[in-house]
Automatic annotation (TrEMBL):
<comment type="subunit">
    <text>Heterodimer of SbcC and SbcD.</text>
</comment>
<protein>
    <recommendedName>
        <fullName>Nuclease SbcCD subunit C</fullName>
    </recommendedName>
</protein>
<dbReference type="GO" id="GO:0016887">
    <property type="term" value="F:ATP hydrolysis activity"/>
</dbReference>
<dbReference type="Pfam" id="PF13558">
    <property type="entry name" value="SbcC_Walker_B"/>
</dbReference>
<feature type="coiled-coil region">
    <location>
        <begin position="297"/>
        <end position="375"/>
    </location>
</feature>
<feature type="coiled-coil region">
    <location>
        <begin position="555"/>
        <end position="582"/>
    </location>
</feature>
<feature type="coiled-coil region">
    <location>
        <begin position="187"/>
        <end position="237"/>
    </location>
</feature>
<keyword id="KW-0175">Coiled coil</keyword>
<feature type="domain" description="Rad50/SbcC-type AAA">
    <location>
        <begin position="5"/>
        <end position="234"/>
    </location>
</feature>
<dbReference type="Pfam" id="PF13476">
    <property type="entry name" value="AAA_23"/>
</dbReference>
<dbReference type="InterPro" id="IPR027417">
    <property type="entry name" value="P-loop_NTPase"/>
</dbReference>
<feature type="coiled-coil region">
    <location>
        <begin position="627"/>
        <end position="760"/>
    </location>
</feature>
<dbReference type="GO" id="GO:0006302">
    <property type="term" value="P:double-strand break repair"/>
</dbReference>
<feature type="coiled-coil region">
    <location>
        <begin position="458"/>
        <end position="495"/>
    </location>
</feature>
<comment type="similarity">
    <text>Belongs to the SMC family. SbcC subfamily.</text>
</comment>
<dbReference type="InterPro" id="IPR038729">
    <property type="entry name" value="Rad50/SbcC_AAA"/>
</dbReference>
């Protein structure tokens, strides 16, 4: 790759458009010179940015490179043209930045728009590569054949990086080579082997621990004395750290066998005892049944004896019941007579009470009439008082409301007056304080003046970091929006697929209908063909094979309906697909803008896995890390500003405060003048309102509105009470008059009923006397003794009935029990219960012992099965660990008795040797073969830390070796330059798809003496003589005399400029 032309616009320190034509370099070696900070290194930054969207140092991306000197309307971009193998490529790239819009806002103000980042690649045939930014970046990387780290290592020996590779420790070189030669694969192999070996070792340890834990679960048998030796051996096996699986399994199997023998013996004992217990329980049930029968028979016989003793009493009850039934007709006649007598006496009593009530009600009626007259007088008095005072009070209530409004207005005006007074007093105090602070600010400005220039570059850097922080915040929000939009697109896509399937089905249906219909029409036409007459379709008069109709035919209407349905679904499909394409395109555009912005800000993730479920989580983590990194850099920048920034801040703060105080004092004084008239107006209104209130209060009947309202309410209540009392008095009078009339009617009706019932009473008394004689009762006393109540009669009948039932029941039970107990004598139950208890206790003891043996045997069997599996697993793990462990120790350089050299270092060591070989060719030319670089031999490597990439200096004349850090400044420069050139050669040889014909060397020549500098220039000239461009970035004056072709960068307040200068 050879640069042809570089065009920069508003990039870095270049405010406007600057072009550098590299075809003007007549020799291979040229000098880039200028003041410090003018923008010399920015030229290489622009090349790197055009190719890789990053700067050479990797600390800034394109978004941070817009020139601070640029005009608002100037575009920021880099356009880079280079040639390779006779083919010419052009790349134009611009970052994201804010520029002045072409149209103004609605209010006429200037409007800023965000320019999206972009890249354009023009191919050798003049065509522009068609692809999005990411695809174009990938195409450029494909053309280059190397990433940005490799490119900057080959094409740029960066300022301050000369000695990094030379003086680096082996560990640091390893990290550098891993990135350049991409040897991370070997480190991954080391880590995987180390992790696998560690996992296998852990599994071995866990297997042994688990086997030991299982061994502790084993329970012992009640061994005989002659087997004591086996028990002791088992105890010894349990204490061993490494188990002899074969012996352990053999002993455990023997223990399980003995345990099962004991278990079977206990099962037989349990079965025998269960049979005995079953027999005894059956005998006990039979004995209990016989004893219950004998007890029942004795109770029945005792019951029969008691019934015989009751017989005489029952006969007396039967005679008493007969007399009671004879008295029943007499009793009915007596009840009729007494009921009539009772009614007559009740009516007489009712008449007496009613007459008494009538007299009382007539007295109360007179009282009600008097109360009515009193209520009428009270009502007339209340109405007169209302007429005299009510309307006046109602009118006064309205005036009270007006007074309240005036009081509220007065309170408001007083508050406004007080506010204005407090505000004026506060402003006056503020003016005094501000004048004092203003004087202090002026004194501080005199002390801190002159610090602005020292902070210019640092503030620019801080502004850039703050902009990056803002963009990162925008990225976080855009990420959330993209997540939501992705879910919406899935739903739209599913609908589009569904609509497309529906359309295809409808289209197939329509095609089938159309073909069927056409065939039917052809069949109809064929039926009408006549041999010798022309066919209306083809004109032929011969019809060898006319169309035949097959099956049912479809109508034109059915075909039209199918076509209509197909067209409807086609329109629906087009709408769904268009909606999906629109949303997908919008999503892709947003995603690409998001990814592009992430790339500019250095946020990366595994792109090929972006559709995985955890994709957004990983992107979120990457953005979070970028935000955190930006915050850390911003804090670091603030710390670097230090005391100089503090002085400048104090100056600016004092200056700003002084200006603000001047403006503030002026505004406060203006406020005081403006507020004087409002204050006087407020005071005048307060005085007017106070006078109005005083006059209004004097015209009111009461001092307080509440008192007037209370009196008005009293009058209303008194008037309503008077009307209510009058109405109640009238209602009470009417009720009493009505009640008097009702009571007089009741008395007349009661007199009539007494006369009627008295006659009936005399007739019923004669019938009662006749009934006594007819039923055989000589006297009324004999009848009264014979009477029985209905309850008593029923009770006697129930007793007789119950007695006869008990007699019958006892006789039947005595006969049944006597027959059932024939030949069956009672048994001893206590003796049976003792035997049953003893047998059950023995059975429970045997059962518990058997269950304990069963659980022990089952547990021991589980342990045996586990240990057999663990034994097999242990062997397999030991074999695997023997292989993997040895591989891990070999790859990680931890084999005992060997050099601590891991696999990645070994591979890098081969590259390192090639780099040193290429570097020594240049170094010999520079120092005349005085010393060479040498990779430290394996035998001399230290056994501690990371080694293998150590570098020594070999002195040819003295045949001695020493550490590379002992070189002087000039020697270190020559050695580091040789190393950098050698590294570039090897990287170019192993990674480059194109041959890089350009190299930049940034500073370092100031440490060389004249001779060493001439030798270094000679080497670079030789390098340039091989059809390569070598640009030296330096401000050393001696180089200006030694190198004719110069690219001069000059700095100004309006940005840097550049031009070629030829001596």
């Amino acid at each position: 790759m050879r640069p042809v032309r570089l065009e920069m616009s508003a990039f870095g320190s270049y405010a406007g458009k600057v072009e550098i034509d590299f075809t003007q370099v007549k020799q291979g070696l040229f000098l880039v010179t200028g003041d410090t900070g003018a923008g010399k290194t920015t030229i290489f930054d622009a090349i790197t940015y055009a190719l890789y969207d990053q700067t050479s140092g990797g600390r800034r991306d394109g978004n941070m490179m817009r020139s601070q000197y640029a005009q608002k309307e100037t575009d920021t971009y880099v356009k880079y043209t280079f040639s390779s193998s006779g083919k010419c490529y052009t790349i134009r790239r611009n970052p994201e930045y804010l520029r002045l819009g072409k149209r103004r806002g609605k209010d006429g103000s200037l409007r800023y728009v965000k320019e999206a980042p972009g890249v354009e690649l023009t191919l050798p045939d003049g065509s522009v590569y068609q692809g999005k930014k990411r695809e174009t970046d990938a195409k450029i990387a494909e053309i280059m054949g190397m990433d940005v780290d490799q490119f900057t290592q080959i094409a740029m020996i960066a300022q301050g990086d000369f000695l990094k590779l030379l003086h680096a420790e082996s560990k640091e070189r390893k990290a550098i080579f891993s990135r350049i030669f991409q040897t991370r694969l070997y480190a991954d192999v080391q880590e995987n082997l180390k992790r696998s070996a560690s996992e296998l070792y852990s599994r071995l340890e866990n297997n042994l621990k688990s086997a030991g834990a299982q061994l502790n679960r084993v329970e012992y048998l009640e061994l005989l004395e002659e087997e004591e030796e086996k028990r002791k051996r088992w105890e010894e096996l349990r204490e061993l750290e490494v188990l002899p699986y074969e012996e352990v399994l053999e002993n455990l199997e023997w223990m399980i066998q003995r345990g099962r023998q004991w278990e079977l013996k206990k099962e037989e004992e349990q079965k025998s005892l269960q049979e005995q217990l079953y027999t005894l329980n059956g005998t006990k049930k039979e004995a209990e049944s016989i004893q219950k029968l004998w007890d029942s028979l004795n109770k029945v016989r005792e019951k029969q004896q008691a019934l015989e003793e009751e017989r005489e009493a029952v006969q007396k009850i039967e005679k008493r019941l007969l007399l009671g039934k004879q008295a029943e007709p007499v009793q009915r006649q007596e009840l009729l007579c007494r009921q009539t007598e009772k009614r007559v006496k009740e009516q007489e009593q009712l008449i007496r009470k009613t007459k008494e009530q009538l007299e009382e009600e007539r007295r109360l009626l007179k009282e009600r009439m008097l109360q009515k007259e009193q209520a009428r007088i009270f009502r007339e008095e209340a109405e007169e008082r209302w007429i005299a005072n009510g309307p006046k009070l109602m009118d006064a209530m309205e005036r009270y409301s007006h007074i309240e409004e005036l009081e509220a207005e007065l309170k408001k005006r007083k508050s406004q007056k007080e506010t204005l007074w407090n505000r004026q007093r506060g402003w006056k105090e503020e003016v005094q304080r501000d004048r004092k602070v203003q004087q202090e600010c002026r004194e501080k400005m005199d002390l801190c003046a002159g610090s602005k220039e020292r902070l210019f570059s640092l503030k620019t850097q801080k502004k850039t970091l703050e902009e990056e922080e803002r963009k990162l915040a925008e990225l976080t929000e855009r990420k959330s929006q993209l997540e939501r939009q992705e879910g919406e697109i899935r739903k739209v896509q599913e609908k589009a697929v569904h609509d497309r399937q529906a359309y295809l089905s409808a289209h197939e249906r329509y095609e089938f209908f159309a073909q069927n219909f056409l065939k039917a029409q052809a069949g109809i036409l064929a039926r009408q063909l006549v041999e010798g007459e022309a066919c209306p379709v083809c004109g032929s008069k011969v019809h060898p094979n006319p169309c035949q109709m097959e099956g049912d035919t479809l109508s034109q209407e059915e075909v039209n309906q199918a076509r209509k349905r197909r067209d409807e679904l086609e329109q629906l499909r087009d709408q769904s697909e268009e909606a999906f394409r629109t949303k997908a395109a919008d999503y892709r555009a947003r995603w690409e803008a998001f990814a592009k912005e992430c790339g500019k800000l250095g946020i990366v993730w595994e792109e090929e896995k972006r559709t995985a479920e955890n994709s957004w989580e990983r992107i979120g983590q990457a953005v979070f890390l970028a935000v955190d990194g930006c915050e850390q850099r911003l804090k670091k920048c603030q710390l670097e500003i230090g005391q100089a920034e503090e002085q400048q801040r104090q100056y600016e703060k004092a200056k700003m405060a002084e200006q603000e105080l001047s403006e503030r004092i002026q505004k406060l004084e203006q406020h005081l003048l403006e507020e004087e008239e409002p204050y006087r107006e407020a005071e005048r209104k307060v005085q007017i309102l106070e006078g109005t209130l005083q006059a209004g209060r004097e015209a009111l009947p009461y001092a307080a509105k509440q008192e007037a309202a209370r009196r008005l309410q009293e009058l209303k209540t008194e008037k309503a009470d008077a009307r209510r009392r009058m109405q109640e008095a009238e209602e009470q009078e009417q009720k009493k008059a009505s009640l008097v009339r009702e009571l007089e009617g009741r008395i007349q009706e009661a007199d009539r009923m007494i006369k009627k019932w008295s006659a009936e009473w005399e007739e019923e008394k004669g019938a009662y006397v006749l009934s006594l004689a007819s039923q055989g009762f000589a006297t009324e006393e004999a009848y009264q003794k014979a009477l029985l109540s209905e309850a008593k009669q029923g009770e006697l009948e129930e007793k007789i009935k119950a007695y006869r039932a008990r007699v019958h029941e006892a006789s039947g039970m005595e006969q049944t029990l006597t027959a059932e107990l024939a030949g069956r004598a009672p048994m001893d139950l206590n003796a049976l219960e003792v035997r049953i208890s003893e047998t059950a206790q023995n059975l429970e003891t045997v059962r518990e012992h058997q269950m304990k043996l069963h659980g022990m045997n089952a547990k021991n069997q589980e342990v045996l099965t586990y240990l057999m599996e663990a034994s097999q697993k242990q062997g397999q793990l030991e074999k695997q660990y023997a292989v993997i462990g040895n591989l891990s120790r070999t790859a990680n350089g931890t084999l005992s008795g060997s050099v601590k050299l891991d696999l990645e270092t070994y591979v890098q060591r081969q590259h390192f040797r090639q780099i040193i070989h290429a570097a020594n060719r240049r170094l010999t030319e520079m120092n005349g073969g005085e010393f060479l670089l040498r990779c430290r031999s394996v035998e001399d490597l230290s056994g501690r830390g990371q080694t293998g990439l150590d570098l020594d200096i070999y002195h040819v004349a003295s045949d001695t070796t020493r550490d590379v850090k002992t070189l002087s400044g000039g020697e270190s420069f020559m050695a580091s330059l040789s190393m950098a050139l050698g590294l570039a050669d090897i990287v170019q040889r192993t990674a480059g798809a194109i041959h890089l014909e350009t190299m930049f060397v940034d500073e370092g020549f100031g440490s060389l003496d004249d001779q060493a500098r001439e030798q270094a220039i000679r080497v670079l000239n030789n390098l340039a003589g091989g059809n390569r461009l070598v640009g030296i970035i330096s401000h050393v004056n001696e180089l200006k005399e030694q190198i004719d072709c110069k690219l001069v960068v000059t700095r100004s307040d309006q940005g840097s400029l550049v031009h070629w200068e030829e001596v």
